[in-house]
User: What shape does this take?
Amino acid sequence: QVQLVESGGGLVQPGGSLTLSCAASGNIFSVDAMAWYRQAPGKQRELVASITSTGNTNYADSVKGRFAISRENGKNTVYLQMASLKPEDTAVYYCNADITVATPFRIQYNYWGQGTQVTVSS
Assistant: This one.
């Protein structure tokens, strides 16, 4: 059993900052690529940022220069630092990870967190 648990969402004013965290736990051999997605009401889920196990990052154009993704491999945790937040950043943010399980066989699966709400409003 593998779990991704997100934290850090909330209400923030436009121009403010927020940091999301996502910790993977359970039957883990290795955590490979990790990413953050978001889904606003009435819209499709979209990729916000991703990071490989070696630290290579990728960002959606809409968040470049404002958001930063990072990870602590020893803690199986990924972070999303969000700055200069805009109302259009309002969404449920989901953590996603490719994880190789330890037992019974080392197979890679893709996992999702439960989501955390980020609301940007004055």
About this structure: The chain is about 0% helix and 60% strand. The radius of gyration is 14 Å.
